[in-house]
Design goal:
Layout: E1 9-12, H1 17-28, E2 34-35, H2 47-57, E3 61-64, H3 72-77, H4 79-99, E4 104-108, H5 137-157, E5 161-166, E6 168-170, H6 183-196, E7 201-205, E8 211-216, H7 217-230, H8 233-237, E9 243-246, E10 251-253, H9 254-265, E11 270-274, E12 283-284, H10 289-294, H11 302-320
Parallel strand pairs: 1-2, 1-3, 3-4, 4-5, 5-9, 6-8, 7-11, 8-12
Antiparallel strand pairs: 8-10
Helix pairs in contact: 1-7, 2-4, 4-5, 6-9, 9-11
This protein binds NADP nicotinamide-adenine-dinucleotide phosphate.
NADP nicotinamide-adenine-dinucleotide phosphate binds near residues 18, 43, 65, 85 and 166.
């Protein structure tokens, strides 16, 4: 038992990959007083609707896993929506949490908040030390604003609001739509379809050289519970840190990732690279030493996580399309 066991916990974005993993982890750990509402019933971009919801529900804990999320193509195409939706969702949730005296709020950002050419691995203190990657700049600016909202509601009002910056995530409930997905689920879908249709080759965006880190989403959910139970706002802000990185601390090239996924799926054709398409940031690896030293570490290796994700894709996603 800990201080949060009987508290009312609102998971915003519970239908998404992260929110659904957080719900599973909370239920598995015996948390029973959980609330969630679909985007159809509550559009989090609408301030007065969000405040009415908080007035009625009075949550003690808020996990902000609602966001407009996507890969390079979606980020670069829907630039206005990525900045507007994310700013509105987080500002409404954080301000309503302040007004309604929420005891703990965890805001989720992502590793794209760091400068494009920041030294690697990325340390928490590199935030705002250089230019962002252009393709996802609107999304990153919105996420940085979310971190700064949490920090400054602590500084002015002592709100116990903290931020978690996960690396690239994958797992059950991922987005496998090739127009909007991230690289790992997109590769699962491409290799699966190539195998099913006996295609001689699969073409991958970019050179295959960028290095990326991946974390299985159920591991992230454990880290969120860890932060809810064990990390206080004063622990971070009084040290001059605004957020905690969450990742495995290991990276892999896109070409090695493609080879691994192709093996797991059992695809025997060729892998080709379309070098006219952008690569994005050359390398993105989180320095996870801070959360590791506080007592949390990832559990699921990439191969095991991809196998679980592919099983989920076969049993849930592919049945529906
Ligand atoms: N995916 C990753 O690799 C990754 C990596 C690092 C960090 N993160 C962070 O984790 C968080 C969640 O990401 P995810 O991958 O779980 O995204 P996701 O699967 O796309 O889920 C997003 C969730 O937000 C909800 N939502 C979106 N717009 C909304 C609105 N206007 N009103 C109410 N709800 C709304 C969605 O509801 P509907 O389904 O009803 O639209 C859904 O439940 C984000 O903050 C993201 O930055 C993700």
């Amino acid at each position: 038992m800990n201080n949060y066991h009987n508290k009312k916990i609102y998971v915003a974005g519970h239908t998404g990959m992260v929110g659904s993993a957080v719900m599973r982890a909370l239920q598995k750990s015996g948390y029973k007083n959980l609330i969630a509402v679909s985007s159809g019933q509550l559009d989090l971009r609408r301030q007065s609707d969000v405040e009415d919801f908080f007035e009625k529900q009075k949550p003690d804990v808020v996990i902000v896993a609602a966001a407009k999320v996507g890969g390079i193509l979606a980020n670069n195409t829907y630039r206005a929506e990525f900045i507007y939706d994310n700013l509105m969702i987080e500002a409404n949730l954080i301000h309503a949490s302040y007004l309604h005296k929420v005891k703990k709020l965890i805001f989720l950002g992502s590793s794209c908040i760091y400068p494009k050419l920041a030294p690697q691995p990325l340390k928490e203190e590199y935030l705002l030390s250089g230019y962002l990657e252009y393709t996802n700049e609107p999304y990153a600016i919105a996420k940085i604003a979310g971190i700064k909202l949490c920090e400054n509601y602590f500084r002015q009002y002592e709100c116990n609001f903290i931020s978690a910056m996960p690396t690239n995530l994958y797992g059950p409930n991922d987005n496998f739509d090739l127009q909007t997905s991230h690289v790992l689920p997109a590769l699962i879908r491409k290799f699966h379809e190539a195998k099913t249709n006996n295609n001689p080759s699969v073409t991958i965006w970019g050179t295959g050289k960028p290095l990326r880190e991946f974390l299985f989403v159920d591991d992230l959910a454990e880290a969120i519970l860890f932060m809810m139970e064990k990390v206080e706002a004063s622990d971070l802000y009084n040290l001059g840190i605004t957020h905690l990185n969450i990742g495995s601390g290991k990276d892999i090239s896109i070409s090695d990732l493609a080879a691994l996924i192709s093996d797991i799926i059992g695809y025997n054709g060729k892998i080709e690279y379309d070098t006219t398409k952008p690569d994005g940031t050359p390398r993105k690896l989180m320095d996870v030493s801070r959360i590791n030293s506080l007592g949390w570490k990832y559990k699921t290796e990439l191969e095991e996580g991809i196998k679980k994700t592919y099983d989920w894709f076969l049993n849930n996603y592919i049945q529906k399309v």
